[in-house]
Design brief:
Blueprint (H helix, E strand, L loop, with lengths): L1 H17 L14 H28 L2 H33 L7 H22 L3 H16 L1 H8 L23 H23 L2
Helix pairs in contact: 1-7, 2-3, 2-5, 2-7, 3-4, 3-5, 4-5, 4-6
Length: 200
């Protein structure tokens, strides 16, 4: 899988540099979406993966499941930070400030706090059994907030954030080349997440 990741990543970078046209209304700056969107996507996948393994631990008491749940949550935390950082850079370049407390920025900040608390909780509990059980329960409750904070609440308020890939009318309004490269970037980031989850 490492070779596939390297080749795919190289192809995506080449496509972004040589083939992707400036994005309408946003120009070259919007090419940051090829990093921003995939990292946000993987963060969501990671948090749900962590919850799935948390539920598995509570059913089976298998500490491998606890380890995988924690790994997924940690990766989700890293990816959501990367998504937030790339979004802040885009915000600075287009709106003049890294942070505007836009609805999407605000909800993602809340998500960072929730999963930052999860990591703090794990590091604060010394007993392995107690840590695994408390972490699993916390993970299951935390993941309930993800759809609301990422997909629902930001759409309830006016936002400076550009239209998402799937806009409010349920359509994808994007240049074909841009869409293909974006989908490839999402696949690439997802494969990276799978590879990181599989590491021993």
């Amino acid at each position: 899988m490492n070779k596939i990741l390297i080749v795919l990543t190289a192809a995506i970078v080449a496509a972004i540099i040589f083939f992707v046209p400036p994005i309408r209304g946003l120009g070259e700056l919007a090419k940051i979406i090829f990093f921003h969107v995939p990292t946000a996507w993987v963060a969501v996948i990671a948090f749900f993966t962590g919850a799935w393994y948390a539920a598995k631990f509570l059913r089976t008491n298998d500490f491998t499941a606890d380890e995988l749940s924690a790994r997924a949550a940690k990766l989700g935390f890293v990816f959501v930070l990367l998504s937030t950082a790339s979004g802040a850079i885009f915000s600075k370049l287009t709106w003049g400030a890294y942070w505007n407390w836009d609805p999407r920025q605000t909800t993602i900040f809340v998500l960072i706090l929730i999963y930052g608390a999860y990591l703090t909780l794990r590091s604060a509990v010394a007993d392995e059994k107690v840590r695994a059980k408390v972490s699993a329960v916390y993970s299951l409750f935390s993941v309930l907030t993800v759809p609301f904070l990422v997909f629902i609440v930001p759409r309830m308020f006016f936002s400076l954030h550009p239209e998402p890939v799937l806009n409010s009318s349920g359509r994808v309004q994007m240049d074909t080349v841009v869409l293909i490269v974006l989908i490839a970037s999402v696949i690439d980031a997802t494969l990276l997440f799978v590879q990181l989850m599989r590491r021993s």
